[in-house]
Amino acid sequence: MSSIEIIALALGALTIASALMVVLSMHPVRSVLYLILTFFLISANYVLLNAQFLAIVNIVVYAGAIMVLFLFVLMLLNLSKDNEPRASNIMKLAASLAAGALVIVLVAALKDAIYLPVVENVQGNSQGLVENLGQLLFTKYVLPFETSSVLFIAAMVGAVLLSKKEKQIID
Amino acid sequence: MSVEQLLPLVLLLPLIGGFINGVFGNKLPKVVVGSLATLLVAGSFFIALSIFFQLDQAVEVKLFSIISLPDLTLNAKLLADNLSIWMTLIITGIGSLIHLFSMGYMSHDPGYRKFFTYLNLFIFSMLILVLGSNYFMLFFGWEGVGICSYLLIGFHYADEQKGFLNGIAARKAFIMNRVGDLGLLIGLFLLLMQFGTLEYSEIAAVVTAEDFVNPTWMMFGITMCLFIGATGKSAQIPLFTWLPDAMAGPTPVSALIHAATMVTAGIFLTVRSNYLFELAPDTQKVMLYIGLATSLVAAFIAMRQNDIKKVLAYSTVSQLGLLFVALGLGAYTAAMFHVTTHAFFKALLFLGSGSVIHAMSDEQDIRKMGGLKKYIPVTHWTFLIGTLAITGFPLLSGFYSKDEILGYAFAESIPLYLILMFSVLLTAIYMFRMYFLVFHGEFRGSDHQKHHLHESPANMTVPLIILAILSVFGGVLNLPGLFLHDQAHYMTHLYEHNVAGMNLIHMEHLPSNTIMVLMAVAVISCLAVLAISYQVYVKKKSLPKEDAQLTGWEKVSANKLYFDEIYTALFVKPIEWLSEKGYRFFEIVFLNGIVFGVAKGFETAGEVVKKWESGRVNWYVLWMVSGIVGLIIYYLVKF
Amino acid sequence: MLALIILFLTALVTLFVGFAKKPLLTLSLSVLGLLGTAAALICQWYHPSDFLSSYEGVNMDGFAILFSLVAIIFTILIIFSGFEQFKSRLDHTADYIGLLIFSLFGAIVMVSFQDMFMFFLGLEILSIPIYVMAGARKDDPLSSESSLKYFITGAFATGILLFGIAWLYGATGTFKIYEIQQFFMEAEQISSLAYVGLLFILSAFLFKIGAAPFHFWSPDVYDGAPAPVTGFMAAVVKLGAFGAFIKLFTIAFSELYDFWMPALTFLAILTMFVGNLSAIRQVRFKRLLAYSSIAHVGYSLITMVVLTNNSALNLWYYLFSYGFATIALITVQMIVNDREDRIEAFKGLGRANPFVGFVAVVALLALAGVPPLMGFFGKFLIFADAISQNPALIAVALLNSGIGIFYYLRTVIVILQKPGVDNEIEQSEFKTTPLQLIVLGICVLAMLFGGGLLMVH
Fold this sequence. Notes:
The structure holds 3 protein chains of 3 kinds.
Chain A: H1 3-24, H2 28-48, H3 52-77, H4 89-110, H5 130-138, H6 142-163
Helix pairs in contact in A: 1-2, 2-3
Chain B: H1 3-24, H2 30-54, E1 59-69, E2 72-80, H3 82-105, H4 112-131, H5 135-153, H6 163-195, H7 200-208, H8 216-233, H9 242-245, H10 251-260, H11 265-272, H12 274-277, H13 281-304, H14 308-328, H15 332-359, H16 377-391, H17 397-412, H18 414-439, H19 447-452, H20 458-473, H21 490-498, H22 512-539, H23 545-551, H24 553-560, H25 562-611, H26 617-638
Chain C: H1 2-17, H2 23-46, H3 50-53, E1 54-55, E2 58-59, H4 62-87, H5 93-112, H6 116-134, H7 141-172, H8 177-186, H9 192-209, H10 217-224, H11 227-252, H12 257-280, H13 285-305, H14 311-336, H15 349-352, H16 354-368, H17 374-386, H18 391-416, H19 434-449
Antiparallel strand pairs in C: 1-2
Catalytic activity (chain A): a quinone + NADH + 5 H(+)(in) = a quinol + NAD(+) + 4 H(+)(out)
Pfam families (chain A): Oxidored_q3
Organism (chain A): Taishania pollutisoli
């Protein structure tokens, strides 16, 4: 096993563990903190995969902006352990059973999967850098790129619609 | 004009009537609505008549294409051959008489215009059913008449007292018919699968070709499915109980739809598909026995009924059973012959009963009638003719058509003949019982009813008279070889001439001597029943039991004559008992227990499935995960 | 392409015109834009041009044009019929219409995609506005609840979908559907990654179309969402999802037919039963519609189970007929406007407003598949196509449509009944607007004469 593989495995295990903690920790603030940790670990995975730009963006946008917003909201609402609705024990049991079953069947299904031969990078280590990414986005993938802007506008309009204070309905 | 031009007109006229009455009906005076509907149907009848006389070879008229895909073509095509035109004549002929009758009968009903709209639409659908040139058109008409029948059974759904029951009766009819329709639809798909087409002529050509190899099981499947369709519409065991309930509809509807035309759609379907049924002898056997059983059971039940329309309804079921026996024997022409005469006298009887009910201020219980013959003479005489015709009184129409079927049964096997004969005897018994109870003896209704007794107006009695004449002379359409050798078997020749498949079917005619003997047996038994009934109901004034207790009259009678008790003990009692039990069994155990049990089962299952919906989003996701796990397990099992 | 651009501009213009607070202007401009989009598509149909149609990721072929045109028609009808409700909140009229148009954009992308990027984007553009619209009635807790439920389950399904796409990429090394097809044709051995990916994508699709056991959200969401949104979900969202479904599975996964067909057969049967059996006991109208829609998904899945040359067209025609009936019923529901949406509230509709009652009855019968209505032809085409391959499945489907009759007929009876006399149910006034009458008119014409469409081929 090469050193890269060992690092990848360790990172993967850490990422999963931290993601699990997001779900399992009782306190919401702690959950969010674990989520931030998870994002960092994912970014580390990106770096390992030679996608440096994506790693940076992931940290800036998710860990930086969105998660901080989450924290603010949580603190403003003063959510604590007591008033958070708890799932029933049956629910917990069922959820763990279902999740466990999913893991087991997935492992069973994928344990001897065939992988495609690894294609060597033509551009070497610079593939994941912003320049190459930009090139691709504005040439080959311009349509998906533009279309995603439609998605954002739609989402934005939706967010405004939902968060705007309702005036008294005119009957 | 040529047949091609005339044929669409036959269809178009009732449709126009339905359209005008449906859309503008509220703005037109009642007289216009009624006479428009009646005249248009009569117009259809005369056009059909002119087609009938100039028709030689079968004619197909393409109207438009419904579906034309590369591997599936369905055309809206009409087919005129002697069978379809024959049915058209019955439908429009009796239809126009019943329209005329309804103008009087429904005159006080607030739903007058709606009624005529439905009736016209019914005629239209029924004509599509018989005139279509493929099974698809037939299915269209089939559904159409089903819906019209549903609407008309529940016609008085807003009635204060019985509206709810009427609605239930309508729904029962619709649901039971759907079961049959399902069979028919599957049959259609199987036909499509086997032949790639639904055109009668094309299928007939394939099936009757010299080198056709009979795919036995497929044929069995197809014909069984078609037969299941027929059991629904033509009220055979196990789907027959809707028909008596369907009497909740106005009486003209019972006459037109539930006696003369719609219920014979199953017979028509079988005759139309004769070339298929000939290839599936097993289905014919099933048909034979189901028909026989239905005929007997319905006749048993009719013995105990006291509602004038119910008696007629069970008698219709019994006659339809007889028809299926004929079809099971392969006697298609005989079946059509009996369909024709049955349409005459059963429509007559129903309209007659309508006239009686009308006169009795909507009373339907025969225990409350009696002695009506002097108050409503026209109705009485025509009703008598109808009764005699259905019981097979010599030389009336029912005599010939019934005897023909009995003859074929005799040729098949003697036990079959005996059972069938027994059923015919029962028919005679309950019909005479009803006739005598209604028209003879003392009047047993209230003074109020007695005061209002009146003969119906002319537009109600004229159809009765016409139908009575037809019931008397209808027999000449297919006389047995015994009389008038040249003109005998008119219908048989007619059908062999240009109806697909019919020329290949040859029924052996019985030797004249045998026919004579059978006829003699029939005549003697009919007359015997008549005599006994007369003795019992008129001379001895025997009445249904409940009333006897009220008047205290039966005790006296029983003491006077010992014969009655023996008769009752030996004959009436067991039959009453059987009839009662049969009624119980089929109505309660079978229908409520099994047929509705299935529906109940679905409802309960619905309840269980509904409980899954706990409204909790966690569970939803959980189910989704389980679904995914299930799918992956499927993958693991597969590889 | 041109059509997509026009549509996007229409949505933007609608949003901006909204500031003027003139609902009629907003309505007319948006409908004009939609008609323009349709016109562009029709031009494309008669004069196919590569420049305007195909691009890296999308291709406006005949299939896409047919599905898109129907989606546009349905959207216009829904905007018409829901206009009264949109108008009641002046601030948001344009937002509502704009969001619906955005969602339509997603639907069109979903039927014209050529690679997984566009497919995924289309799905999200289709879904996100609907998540929002489901909760548009903010004063109604049921509406908010349904929005949240839809969002959470939808997000889960999206995650599953992405997971599946990733695995598929891992197995085939490409996102383009034709290349995936090529790969499966040539591959000597297919990796288990591909199968698992396929199953995950399948699950996400089943969620979107609301097939058992991924259907649980749909009754709640149909019930809670505002009526026009319910109609949109039943007609347009389903159309887009089914279009993408059949496209993906007939092109990319056509080689794996033997693998996914049995699973889909089973699920189709399960879906039919779940939908029909649950519908029997419903007392709320939109829940009834939701279960009926589940049952119809089951019938539609038959086209996928038996793939023939006609499958896509049959599916298209079926969804077309289904959409008209559903939109008509949703419009009727808005006219009845019962606070608790009880089926009982339809009592007397046939007398109080014969035209509306007539349309409702026709629509219910069309859903039940009674000839000669359009719904019957839809079912007939599907069943006729499938009978030779899988008679047992058709028998089950016929049995199910038999069960279906039961609850459709029950509702028909309620509509035809006399208005109730008991005071518990206050009688609705059945107020209609001209636009709703237009919608009903179009729907009823389509249902009555839609069978004629088959003659065109």
